[in-house]
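stage 2 :: seqdesign
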C-alpha cells in the first residue's frame, strides 16, 4: 500500500462513504488528507477543525508537497483516479500561478520560479544550468544539445593526465583543484567538466583531491 493509498483510506474514514466531512481523527495539530475524487483539493484538520482546501493554480495534492499550503507542483504529483482542472491561470512570465520555468530557450544558469502569479528569476548553483526535463538545475554535460560545459564551468578537461599525478587516481573521472578556491574541485566526466562543492565544514585536500574536515585550506 503506497503513501497516497493510505491518505485515500484515511480520507474515507474522515469523510464517510457519502463524501461529506464528518470529523477529524486527531484533536490536536495539523493533518492533511487527500480528497478521494479531486486532485487539487484536500481536507485539512487544524486542532480538530475540518476544512475543505483547494490548491493554488499549478499545484496539486499528494500528501508530500510543501510548495504552498500542503500542495506540490502539478508535474510532481501522480493523481491516479483523482481528477482536476488543468486550465492555467496565466500572468506575464508565468504559465500557472505556481510553477518553475526556463527563462530562455538557450543554455541558462538561471530559471523562473512563479509564486502567486509573480515570476522570480533565480540562479542555479555555480557550475549548473537549468534543465526543463527535471524542472531544476543539472550538470551542463547532461544538456549537450544546448550547453557547452567548458564555457559554463570555465575549465577544459585534458585528454590525458600524468600517470603519477593525483588526478590519475580518479581516472576515468580525473579531479583537479580550483585555483583560489579550497572548497571546490573540478571533475571530468567523459571529457566534460563538472564543478563539485565540498560538503559543509570540509575543504579540498590538494594532495589527495578529496574533501576533508581537517584539511588545510590552500587557496
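stage 2 :: out
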Amino acid at each position: 500500500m503506497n503513501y497516497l493509498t493510505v491518505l485515500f483510506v484515511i480520507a474515507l474514514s474522515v469523510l464517510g462513504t457519502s463524501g461529506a466531512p464528518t470529523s477529524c481523527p486527531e484533536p490536536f495539530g495539523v493533518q492533511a488528507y487527500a480528497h478521494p475524487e479531486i486532485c487539487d483539493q484536500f481536507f485539512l484538520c487544524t486542532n480538530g477543525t475540518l476544512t475543505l482546501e483547494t490548491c493554488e493554480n499549478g499545484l496539486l495534492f499528494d500528501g508530500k508537497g510543501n510548495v504552498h499550503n500542503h500542495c506540490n507542483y502539478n508535474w510532481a504529483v501522480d493523481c491516479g483516479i483523482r481528477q482536476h482542472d488543468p486550465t492555467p491561470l496565466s500572468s506575464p512570465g508565468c504559465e500557472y500561478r505556481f510553477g518553475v520555468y526556463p527563462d530562455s530557450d538557450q543554455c541558462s544558469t538561471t530559471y523562473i520560479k512563479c509564486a502567486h502569479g509573480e515570476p522570480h528569476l533565480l540562479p542555479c548553483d555555480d557550475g549548473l544550468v537549468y534543465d526543463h526535463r527535471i524542472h531544476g538545475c543539472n550538470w551542463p554535460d547532461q544538456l549537450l544539445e544546448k550547453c557547452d560545459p567548458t564555457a559554463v564551468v570555465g575549465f577544459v578537461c585534458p585528454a590525458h593526465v600524468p600517470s603519477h599525478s593525483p588526478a590519475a587516481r580518479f581516472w576515468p573521472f580525473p579531479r583537479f583543484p580550483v585555483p583560489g578556491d579550497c572548497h571546490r574541485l573540478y571533475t571530468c566526466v567523459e571529457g566534460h567538466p563538472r564543478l563539485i562543492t565540498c560538503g559543509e565544514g570540509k575543504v579540498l585536500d590538494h594532495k589527495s583531491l578529496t574533501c576533508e574536515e581537517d584539511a588545510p585550506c590552500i587557496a
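stage 3 :: structure notes
- The radius of gyration is 24 Å.
- Residues 126 and 157 are 17 Å apart (CA to CA).
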